[in-house]
Amino acid sequence: MAVANAEVEVLIVGGGPVGLTARALLERWGVRVLLVEKHAELSPFPRSRLVNVRSMEICRQLGLADRIAAKAFAPEYGRVRFRDTLHDRDFATAAMVGVDAPVPESPVIGVVTSQDRLEPTLLAAADTEVRFGVELVGLAEEAESVVALLADRRRDERTRVRARYVIAADGARSTVRPLLGIDTEGPGVLGGFTTVVFDADLDRWCAHQPAGVYFTPHGSFAPLYPEGGWAWFGATPEHTTDADWPDVVARALGPGADVEAQVLRVQHWVMNAFVAERFLHGRILLAGDAAHALPIIGGLGMNTGLADVHNLCWKLAGVLRGWAEPNLLETYERERRPVALRTLSQAVANTELMVHVLTRRRDQLATGEWTSSEIELPWSERFFAQLGLVLGFTYHSAAVLTGNSTPSELCDGDTDYVPTAEPGHRMPHFWLAPGRSTLDALGAWFTLLTPDPTHWAQHTDARWPLRVETLPKEHADLCGIHPQGALLIRPDGHIGARWQDRPSTDGTLHQALASITCSAPS
Question: What pTM does this model have?
Answer without folding.
Answer: 0.94
